[in-house]
Amino acid sequence: MNNNKSLTNLVGAAKATKKLSQFSLLALACFSANALAESVAITNAEVYTLASKGILSNATVVFDEGKITAVYANDELPEQLSVDKTIDAKGKVLTPGFIASNNLLGLVEVGAVANSRDGAAKKADITFDASLAFNPMSSLIPYTRKGGITTNIVMPKGGDSLFKGQSFAVNLSGDFDSVIASNNGVIVELGAKAKGSRALTLQKLANTLEDADKKLTAKDSKKKSKKEPKRSEVVVNALLAGEKPLLAKVDRATDILALLKLKARYQLDLVLVGARDALLVSQDIAKANVPVMISTIDNLPNSFDSLHGSLTTAAELEKAGVKVIIATSGESHNINQLRFDAGVAVANGLEHSSALAAVSANVADVFKLNSGRISVGKDADLVLWSNDPFEISTQVDTMWINGKQVSTKSRQDALRDRYTSESDMPRAYIK
Amino acid sequence: MSINLSGLRFRKSLLSVSVISLSLTACLPQEKQDAKVTINKNPYPSTYKALAHQDTLFTNATVLTGTGERLNDTDVLVRDGKVSKVGQDLNEQGVTVIDLQGKWLTPGIIDVHSHLGVYPSPKVESHSDGNEMTAPNTSEVWAEHSIWPQDPGFQTARAGGITSLQILPGSANLFGGRGVTLRNVPSHTMQGMKFADAPYGLKMACGENPKRVYGSRKVLPSTRMGNVAGYRSAWLAATEYKRAWEKYEKDYAAGKNPQAPKRDLELDTLMGVLEGEILIHNHCYKAEEMAVMIDLSKEFNYHAGTFHHGVEAYKIADLLAENGNCAAMWPDWWGFKMEAYDMVEENVAIVDAVKNSCAVVHSDSAITIQRLNQEAAKVMYRANENGFDLKEEDAIKWITYNAAKSLGINDSVGSIAQGKQADIVVWSSNPFSVYAHAEQVYIDGAKVFDKFDDKYQAQSDFLLGQTKAGK
């Protein structure tokens, strides 16, 4: 799916499908699962739109053919809604589906099982497209949905190269067409090194950009080179054209400042990832308009690059005017804790609304996704929560991806049910 | 008199001492007795002293006792570092009164599985002291000899309400060595943190780790059956060692002059388990392996102790309760290895639901230890969504009383009750909320942390003077 598809196109496509559905529902069922999505109105919801309408009480959200078609405040509700299904939210909280990031979801099934891992390869370089390995059938995905996560930005670990490859976006429908966008960000890793000097990696990055920039400028002024650019050059050129973000894994303040300089020089679409010492240079980051993707709970001085990690980092960055993205730390199996990490950030000073944006709208903005907000035309990726989504006592009531209701039942639930049921037979007979 | 002998070659020099022993022996010996050889079981004694404290009356709190009770609008009086009274409308003279209206009070949080100090921050090679990965049996190593008390993680754990914690060696080995229980107070020596009368723990590990580490070196164990063969060989040796010491004791008491068994640090630890003085803390994920470990303990007549990381404990909840084993669990860690694949979020609740059970929530993480209350909360809420009826007073046990029981320190800490050491956490609100903070933390009645008072926020030597914020 192309994220940059214009709204009119989308609406047009939706209308066409609607006609089809009246014509032959069965034929359509064989065509695409998503096209079956019915029109739904969720009424009486506390809606966190993360859009211009802000927070609405007793509001109604309508979606059809996978897109949000109307958002009504209490006093805007028309007398009649022409929808297939109405769901009374009974005052529960409706948010955009959360968007996780910086993990290997769908690339790793069991961490220590070597042949269940596809997130890294020694020879992986800037062209590494791990989306080719994405497994929508992974048992991690239904479990991740329990955390209200509808979309994920997978960021592979790469290999020996300075550039670790490219990120990609997926929805968590579990369908075979889950990849929303591949190659939507270039990952680079800077900072402390076990062998050698960080200076060399910074230098390499600067040189790569400078060389590519020179080549492009030369091309503009002289005749076009007959040579096809190398695949890696195409990617670097895309960075220089600002077509995709440079996702820079970095912690120390000096490295961050060096990156900000590169951004200024080449107008890069820069995103800082990890950035444990970011609060030391929060003003510079804000001035450069660079988003920061951080773990909110990573507060220990893990290295000499990160002596200032703090539970208040997210709040302090936000106060300085930095756009924050919250990502869980560690691997992929507990991404559904994203909402608790957001809660910890709120407990340590981050505004609740900012924390919500940090797990939805902000991520959508950086990766140009048509989700993360509840407004007309956006993908109907929605979560109805029993209460405040960040509270541990809260659970997902219902969730939709592209307007289609998805289950939050996982393999873990089946195991629990097996071992909490009574039977005369061995448990293996309980299914 | 306790004499430490590392080898028999020293024995002759002690003959003069043995003459004194002889004169004290009641029965008439056939020959002169040498000085009796005994093992000093506490050669690195605790020097912990409670911090300066004052008698305090906490009033109007919601108290979770740690033993299954919730007391609303209740006062807790602390005198001389101990809980002196728990009740309503207590009136005491000459004490500091702290009104906790709207706040919650719990026992200090205890983590039975921590590597703070032995795998400290920063995570640099020079600090990696938690796993003596040089032999499948390293019962002779003691985690306390690796502890760096300046690990900044102790401070952040204290801010999360952690008052006691067991530091374990790593899990590469069948027998990883001894763990030690600490009071979470700042100190520049390990001894200054050591929990005075806590029993030692012996770390054992089942499953994937030992077979991977040693299998890759082509030595036993390379399989799970190799693991068990390794345990059995070790317990056999320990049984013989114990018998040799018993024979020595008996013969010496009979006035003979037996030769003391050769000291063996590895077997000292295992013998401590056989004698019931050292508690097993067994990293063991899978149901079938825990069942084997229970049988193993019966074969060699010791108690199998606490299973840590018991991801599959829910499959054998009955068996654990029948045999008096605690299970220390995460709410949701999983999938990092095959033996952690069968996670269920209700694991702790399922284990807890059985009569005579001992369910514990542990961290094994310098990050998670800061929020064990939230870890317990996750279990409580997920379980309640799926047919359980757990309350805050139930869930707090998993990180207080049951944890203390697992460590053998439940006589002195782990609950709010008269006579108990006053390890107390004051929470800003219901501690099972994501927004709750540990506002004040007390150990033995002494305030060791205050969220709103810089005076009670310790800082490690390591960070002092090199961070911009100064803390």
TrEMBL record, chain A:
Gene Ontology MF, one: hydrolase activity, acting on carbon-nitrogen (but not peptide) bonds
Signal peptide limits: 1-37
Keyword Signal annotated: yes
Domain Amidohydrolase-related stretches: 277-406
One Pfam family this sequence matches: Amidohydro_1
Biased composition annotated in UniProt, kind: Basic and acidic residues: 412-425
Keyword Signal: yes
Location of region: Disordered: 412-431
Keyword line: Hydrolase, Signal
Protein name per UniProt: Amidohydrolase
Organism: Litorilituus sediminis
Lineage of source species: Bacteria, Pseudomonadati, Pseudomonadota, Gammaproteobacteria, Alteromonadales
TrEMBL record, chain B:
UniProt xrefs under CDD domains: Met_dep_hydrolase_C
InterPro entries for the chain: Amidohydro-rel, Metal-dep_hydrolase_composite, Metal_Hydrolase, Metallo-dep_Hydrolase
Kinase is among the record's keywords: no
Positions of the Amidohydrolase-related domain: 363-431
Keywords, ordered alphabetically: Hydrolase
GO MF, any single term: hydrolase activity, acting on carbon-nitrogen (but not peptide) bonds
One Pfam family it belongs to: Amidohydro_1
Protein name from the UniProt record: Amidohydrolase
